[in-house]
Design a protein that fits this description.
The protein is of the alpha/beta class. The protein has nine helices and 14 strands. A hairpin with a 7-residue loop joins β10 and β11. The protein is globular. The two termini are 24 Å apart.
């Protein structure tokens, strides 16, 4: 069984401004500081041709926070996610940040690709892997596509979980629907300008930013900035073998 040594960053939207600095500065610290290699993945913004502007905004934001090595990578769809040179670059990343936008396009772009394999390898070596809004949604086992009113299989780093970003906006319209579609899953709601990282020694999660975080199961639990969410409530794959997934991706791409 392999042990993952990196971190997962989940943000609720309205990135690149305001109190989102709290969680992004913490992510940079965990990644190695201002000289850490930060790679922005803009694929979720590609369907409406917003990836160049969104990627540039991400680069500008992290530079304002002090980062000296940050780039928006040309990963916008499945074809580009299969690029060998790009995959090689991502394997040495220290912070991999998935932008918001269209979650289904993002998940379809990354699943079973060389770049996703490299991102998993970087994470296993200690990188921070995360994103905001759609970029956070797809990391869970399930995500909700409101355009199709469907639950879709995500990238699976957070088992039995579905994430609602922009929670104050979408909680009423999404929460009940998701509990009916996923009665046995945990729903994680994250307000805008708010994020969590599993940065405690036992991989528990700390809440950062402006708003609150909510866990919805049999009941609802609310967590404020500075509070900790235990791994008994919110699990990641930190102690689950990823080798099968990596072998499957390699086999498909040989």
């Amino acid at each position: 069984m392999s042990t993952v040594h990196g971190y997962i960053l989940l943000e609720g939207g309205a990135e690149f401004g305001g109190r989102m600095a709290d969680v992004d500065l913490r992510a940079m610290e965990l990644a190695g500081g201002v000289s850490a290699q930060i790679d922005i993945i803009p694929a979720a913004a590609a369907p409406d041709k917003n990836h160049l502007r969104a990627g540039a905004n991400g680069v500008s934001w992290f530079k304002r926070l002090g980062a000296t090595r940050v780039i928006s990578q040309p990963l916008i769809d499945y074809q580009s996610a299969q690029d060998r040179q790009l995959a090689s670059k991502l394997e040495s990343s220290s912070l991999l940040y998935l932008l918001g936008g269209f979650p289904r396009h993002l998940a379809n772009s990354l699943k079973h690709t060389r770049c996703w394999q490299s991102m998993l390898v970087a994470w296993q070596k200690g990188a921070v892997l995360g994103g905001s809004s759609a970029g956070a949604m797809v990391l869970a086992q399930h995500f909700y596509d409101p355009r199709q009113d469907q639950v879709v299989v995500g990238l699976g780093l957070l088992p039995n979980l579905c994430i609602i970003p922009h929670f104050a906006k979408f909680s009423k319209s999404w929460s009940g629907r998701l509990k009916s579609l996923l009665p046995d899953a945990t729903i994680l709601g994250i307000d805008e300008e708010t994020g969590i990282i599993n940065d405690v020694e036992d991989k528990s999660w700390t809440v950062y930013g402006k708003g609150n975080v909510y866990l919805i199961g049999q009941g609802i639990s609310e967590f404020s900035p500075g509070e900790t969410i235990s791994t008994s409530l919110l699990k990641s794959l930190d102690s689950i073998d990823q080798s099968t997934e990596l072998k499957n991706i390699r086999r498909e791409n040989d």
